[in-house]
Design a protein that fits this description.
The structure is a single chain. By secondary structure, this protein is an alpha+beta fold. The chain has a domain of 150 residues. Helix content is 37%, strand content 35%. The chain contains 5 helices and 11 strands. Strands 2, 3, 4, 5, 6 and 8 form a 6-stranded antiparallel beta sheet that branches. It is rod-shaped. It comes from Ulvibacter litoralis. InterPro entries: SIMPL/DUF541 (IPR007497). This is SIMPL domain-containing protein.
Length: 246
């Protein structure tokens, strides 16, 4: 009985080894077939320019910055009136920076206390940026800077660019085999070589932003809306694709 059990185990082990050998041979054959297939490799890149639709501003309120020496609370009320008049969603787009300390206190001459408060504001277009700057300038709030620009649909845009890059790669491949009277088959390899999105970091009046009509705090107050021009943002995608040649 013991001998029969041993033989049964040996047969099972032999069968298992045969299956493994078959699968290994099949895998090797498939790899060999893949390598032996004639294929064409091509690289394609697609890029586009878009206008930023998410502009970050920093507004600093300081008692020392206004000629009438208004309190920070009064300046803050003026700022809120301007932003409300422009129909800006303050709950969504306005926030206090350094909220933990809220008001920063500066002691001058041993007794005088000046309060400073910083706000972050997000708007969606250059025209609104100009209106915000001009409106705040009229209220003697001139410490306003553009810190960053973004494109809110960048993720979907990059996915679309990948798809277009793949299409371009296939078109390139078809043109390459056309003189040979051959055709391009299915793709057997795809690699995302490079995907790029550019988020502009803009400090004040640096390259990428042009501001016209913005007066200095020491000059006359802005009587008209300030014209803002933003440099468009570049997004690109590059892919490598290998196609079977039929």
């Amino acid at each position: 009985m013991k001998l029969e059990i041993t033989k049964t185990k040996q047969m099972k082990n032999l069968g298992f080894l045969i299956i493994i050998g078959f699968l290994t041979l099949q895998s090797h054959s498939q790899n060999k077939n893949f390598i032996d297939q004639p294929f064409l490799e091509t690289i394609a890149e697609i890029d586009t320019l878009v206008t930023p639709d998410k502009i970050h501003l920093v507004i600093i309120l300081n008692e020392e910055d206004n000629r009438n020496r208004k309190s920070t609370e009064e300046i803050e009320a003026s700022m809120l009136r301007v932003l409300n008049s422009l129909k800006i969603d303050l709950e969504k787009n306005l926030s206090v920076l350094d909220y933990s300390s809220d008001f920063k206190k500066y002691f001058l001459s041993g007794q005088k206390i000046l309060k400073t408060k910083m706000y972050s504001l997000i708007v969606n277009d250059a025209q609104t940026v100009g209106k915000v700057m001009a409106g705040l300038e009229r209220e003697e709030i001139s410490n306003v800077s553009i810190t960053k620009t973004e494109y809110s649909k960048s993720h979907q845009l990059l996915l679309d660019l990948k798809s277009k890059a793949i299409i371009k790669a296939k078109q390139n491949a078809e043109k390459m085999v056309e003189p040979l009277n051959q055709k391009v088959g299915k793709a057997i390899y795809i690699s995302d070589l490079e995907t790029e999105s550019i988020t502009s970091q803009l400090q004040g009046k640096v390259a990428g932003v042009q501001i016209r009509g913005y007066s200095s705090i020491y000059g006359s107050r802005a009587q008209e809306d300030i014209v803002i021009d933003f440099e468009k943002m570049k997004f690109s995608s590059k892919v490598k694709v290998k196609f079977i040649i039929e």
